[in-house]
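Model it.
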Amino acid sequence: MMNQAECLTRILLQQNYTHFVTVTCRKQPLSESAARRIAQNMYRFVFKTGSYFWVAERFSEKRGLSESFHVHSIIDQPEHRIFGIWAELFDRYGRTRIEKIESNDAVMAYVTKYIVKELCDYDFVFTKKIDQLELYRKIKEWGGGHE
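Modeled.
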């Protein structure tokens, strides 16, 4: 039986992700709900198209700031848009890092790393049409569904 992260990884690997993105907001501390709004706005106003998976991860700053969140994501974007995306995210939110995805193994490791953490929030947008009933069947087949 697969766990939640393994099931989600299989679903995500059906998309064609191209880059990892990490955004740490200038305004700290950042609440979980604020991190969720930033992640949703990143898609609405910056990426606009393409598949997208994000995680709001809890962390503590070393400078004595209270606990906060930052946003990690994997995106499907053409290479010619990456610098513009980086610049817009940096202008809107602050520290931004974008790295090219080299393999599906890297996507699997990424998802597992963040989803297995208990204190995170996440969501995704798929551009490839995924039949919801088929998705449910796959999750059940992989052992990730609940009776």
